[in-house]
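hey can u check if this looks right to u? its 325 residues, i copy pasted from the old doc so theres a chance i mangled smth
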Amino acid sequence: MATQPIAILGTGAYLPERILGNREIAQRVETSDEWIVTRTGIRERRIAEAAETTADMAAAAGRSALENAGISADQIDLIILATLTPDLAMPATACLVQQKLGVTVRAACFDVNAACTGFIYALDVAWAMLSSGRYRHALVIGAEKLSSVLDWSDRSTCVLFGDAAGAAVLGPARTAGAGIVGTRLHTLPSPADLLYIPGPEVSPNPEDKRRLLRMKGKEIFKFAVRAMEDVARELLEQHQIASHQIDCVIPHQANLRIIDAIAHHLKLPLDRFFINVDRYGNTSAASIPLALHEARTQGRIRPGELTLLVAFGAGLTYGGALVRW
């Protein structure tokens, strides 16, 4: 069994170079910068190049996290990649990342798909596996190429999403008191058509728009606020922590109005929340680790502080994690 608490030792991120602003989208569909900003808070998002894959972005974020943690690739014995846009049906994209990073052949590598909650699901799994004592260091990544599954003629979805990757290295805590405090994962049984990407059975043609992402936004919005509030309260109550003791909240970056609502329900000032949805939109499984890395590099997270991560996604999945630095 592990003899030390498991902590996040380092974080990293990767963003494609291309920036797609609202005004450019407005040239494709009937919308405007004002309409998008008012309803979502999003001003721009990143779009990967055609030849840039999920594995490419994941590896870049992973490399950044390894450097940040001061861990070499040959010290990693577990890679878990959260994604809903894998490069291939098989093998797992995590295996492609292993090859790109030169991670040891002894590493276990696999993907998880819990949509936008994917990184928190992967974090929970990695924490459990490292706590067993059978693994030493894990690389946990969230990476998405959502531009490849969007219908760019559908105003209700194409304005929301972007491409990115974020990563974290987990291992034995180096500082007294640091470590993952707790996690909670849930799924609300729900109709699949609230948020989904159809499979090839819909059409053999991968260019057929019927195979692209579809979402019922109003229903998802209501679920998102309730779910993230509930899992946040559950974690705080379980660990006997008052909401004012949370130094920084990293929420899933889907919509600024959702984040506003969560802050109101938890009775926390909005400045306690780290927000970058305006610059990147919803990057699904990459959302939490990307925001986490930016919060750390910008000094919003400091040693000894307590961070709350909360997310929701298709399924309908939701989850949270408490981390002491």
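The chain has two domains: 6-172, 179-324.
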